[in-house]
Amino acid sequence: MSERVPVAEVARRQPAVLVVDDEADLRELLTLTLVRLGLDVDGAGSLTEARALLARRRYALVLTDMRLPDGVGLDLVREITSRGGPPVAVITAFGSAENAVAALKAGAFDYVTKPVDLEQLRLLVRSALREPTEATTTGTEEHGALARLIGESAAMRQLRAMIVRLANSMAPVAIYGESGSGKELVARAIHEQSTRRAGPFVAVNCGAIPETLMEAEFFGYKKGAFTGADRDRDGFFQAAAGGTLFLDEVAELPLAMQVKLLRAIQERRVRKVGATAEEPVDVRILSATHQDLAKLVVGGRFRQDLFYRLNVIELRVPSLRARPEDIVPIARAILRRLAERNGSAPAQLSPAAEAALRAYDFPGNVRELENVLERALALAGGGTLEPVDLMLPQGEVDLLLEPETSASEPATGVPFEIHDGVPTNLVAYLDKTEADAIKAALAKTRNNRTAAAQLLGITFRQLRYRMQRLGLK
After folding, report:
1. Which of 142, 184, 338, 409 is paired with 299 by a 20 to 30 Å CA distance?
2. Reduced DSSP (H G I as helix, E B as strand, rest coil) percent helix, strand, coil of the chain, to 5
3. Other CB atoms within 10 Å distance of the CB of residue 7
4. Distance set, CA 221 to CA 10, 18, 282, 356 (Å)
5. 221 with 232: CB under 8 angstroms?
6. For the chain, which residues make up each domain, given as ranges?
7. CATH number of the domain located at residue range(s) 134-316 in this protein
8. pLDDT tens, 346-357?
9. Whole-structure pTM over 0.85, yes or no?
10. What value does the CA radius of gyration of the chain take, rounded to a whole number of Å?
């Protein structure tokens, strides 16, 4: 016969939550709600009481009011987060967006507003008490999207560290960076490192949705809400429940939709098109843009209140040209990934090809590097890639290659005349004829030098050399 376990011992095995609020009635309501979730709850009416309890017991979550008799809740947030304590959620007054943003910036996991919505509180608690993954607790394991953020430059090491640090918060993160720099990859890495990794990651390109469909796409709709609505349908918020909603190109949202999105983020509730009631949603919001949102706010193209909600934490993805030391390692990783996809041995880069990549600015960032390498593989068929295979614009490749023949041949531009069908300078005449033919071929192929060479019946190397000799760009 098994021994009976004392009630006090059972309570100690349950996750413990500390509720800090000087309103006894609200503290009791919160305590009852949390106990029904199977939690062990302690209450404190001041910062002094809370600090005494924190010194005696370990808690899985702390829930604190912003205003307390002997201080402010933000002080407790900073104290707990600075020593790596449990997640802290803050109770703020209704409509106090500034306090909510300040709490998240101070390190709070999340917030709820008064009057406290008990369903929202339950969602918050379940989210906070999810077991963290090994990667989020140690900060050393890199996998998935985080492992694809390649580079040992100082900027990339700092970016990866910030991703791990931000992962287990509910604070919205605004990701800034040039097109092609990897903003969505950063968002995926934040999601995968968080306790929400088992939930969905829903990426939305805000610039690709017609304005007339935005509300239905984001919030869903009820059957019969409009012509063609033959069934109930969930929107992006419902699809991302328990996970992360990533708003890419958020600056493209029209102002009318910005108002609706702001309310959804503030209230943690959405109303389907055609519905009479709102429903709670449990999502973390990440956003990204290549534009300067602060400038858009000044210009009246982006709502200031939405900007403050989305821009709680700012994360900047460095451009590729700002970290040239990372270009070759990234290129090698891309070649390995392409080889795995094609079931072949990875192609190599010659020293000259590596130098060509490092010398190029890559205005399209990592996305352009991927395109360059995919095209080079398609043309070269594998093996070792040379600068000529990369087809980098602006003559970077040409400057790294030796000419095939003597560069002492005269260039075009030398004056000549034709008398009775005979040129006075045959070499200059032939140079001009050749240059005109090359220009025509490039115009016909929209400056695709590979296609132009095929059209002229010569190799790409021959075309490159002839263009260099004739001074054509």
Report:
1. 184
2. 50, 15, 35
3. 8
4. 45, 39, 18, 53
5. yes
6. 7-128, 134-316, 320-401, 412-473
7. 3.40.50.300
8. 999 999 999 999
9. no
10. 31
